Amino acid sequence: MECYNQPIVLNGTFYFASDFHLGSPNEIESKARELLLIKWLDEIKKDASYLFLLGDIFDFWFEYHDVVPKGYYKFLTKLAELREAGIQIWWFTGNHDMWLKDYLHNELNINIIRKETFFMLNGKHCLIGHGDGLGDGDFGYKLIKAIFAFRFNQWLYGWFHPRIAFAIARFFSRKSRTMTGAGEEVYAGNDKELITQHAYNILQHNNIEYFIYGHRHLPLEVKLTDKATYFNCGDWIMHYTYLKMDINGNIKLFTNPCYSKHISQSPLEEE
Question: Smallest Cα–Cα separation from 78: which of 53, 114, 115, 99?
Fold first, then answer.
């Protein structure tokens, strides 16, 4: 079990969000979601010091040497605006956007993180990541992820013409949503949730106060011990939720005030 003892230390006001899945399920719905994101980013620009994007921001992303996916101009322009305003952006790759390379780092000066990472945020010990492939079990998924992450396989995939490569990716993305179900996600309980079990294992050897993840498409605040809590950002397909940490280290789940959908899974607050 890994011991975390050298955190990245940051202080300020933090926002966390994940699982936008831009590009899915079609152009019309994706663009509507993108506009809501832009409105939200305009709101958080007023007081944000840091923005943490916890993976699956795009439903699919693959960078060729001279080509990147078209679209998302307004979203990426808004991120550039946040960077120019002095807001740092930390982007954790997820299982849908794991093939991010250096384009966003070089063009927008965004920090790209590829694994869960230990932070000290406003004096709080935080373990942060996308949330996929954690804990014991789920060996089939971990094998597939390892195959996709292998650099040689990425190089081979890059030989496909972009139209073919993106058609293949969209097919498997739709297949993934079909297999996992299109309905509301339900928390299976502390003894069955892989992320929760992973957090308990980490706590055996580490003093972590906040575990912050995405991936589950379910906004969560799960008390693990008297001092440790697991938060999940939810998603922007069903819930449109995010996390905010104030300068005192307090974290709350919020629903985007631009979106009025009733939230049934968790008692969220509106700012």
Answer: 53
- Which domain, by its residues, includes 212? 8-255
**Does any domain span residue 226?**
yes
For residue 71, being part of any structural domain is answered with yes
Residue 83 vs residue 156, higher pLDDT = 83
Domain assignment of residue 20, yes or no: yes
Q: Are 194 and 138 in contact (CB under 8 A)?
A: yes
**Residue type at position 38:** I
Q: What digits encode the pLDDT tens for the residues 96-152? A: 676 677 888 899 999 999 989 999 999 999 999 998 767 665 555 454 555 555 565
What CATH code is carried by the domain that includes residue 28?
Answer: 3.60.21.10
